[in-house]
Amino acid sequence: MNADASAGVLMSLGVGVLAAPDGQRLYRIPVIPDIGPADPCVVLHREVYHPYAILHGGTYPRWTSTGLVHWARQPDCYRDERGGLWAPDVYAHRDGRFYLYYTVNQHAPSDRRSSPPKVIGVAEAAGPEGPFVNPSDLDGPAIDAHMFRDTDGRLYLYYVRLDRGFRIGGRPMGDPRTPAGEPAELLRPTEPWEKAHGEVTEGPWVLRRGST
How is 153-172 classified by DSSP, letter by letter? Predict the structure, then answer.
């Protein structure tokens, strides 16, 4: 999880839940009022929350809030002409820069019925508002990249490889843009509920709790 991401906000398809201490009210508020947002990520930076999500696949939209009640739509932070953007993940590095891990079509579709393979990559910006620039693809076919910085400062990129079905893997990174080793398979569909509608395991997100 990003070092400055908010653990107090859960976002899913336009609904936000803000947990309150015991004995106080639990607020249920719309986070993203637009129709259809998915694959959200939220970063807290200088007391401003920055949620990112997908709406139509051509850009990554962004919103902001200072109090978790009122949310304002902001200019899109990234665009890719190949289309098919999914699952943004924004990571604040100790160098002061922000890194966007994207999923995108490997190439633009030849027609509306075609479905190009997906790749993951990284772009960077001076702040959470973007625009994120200098995109560089990292691996494919793959989706749902997520950067994790451990307590010792080491970086690991987790994502779903698709070349042999849905398999979640992880690889060490030398810096936010540069792999430092080969990906290792960590998880694949094994349980009946993971195979009910196709063998799917996706959307990795890593948190440290204590020593694990």
Answer: S-EEEEEEE-BTBSEEEEEE
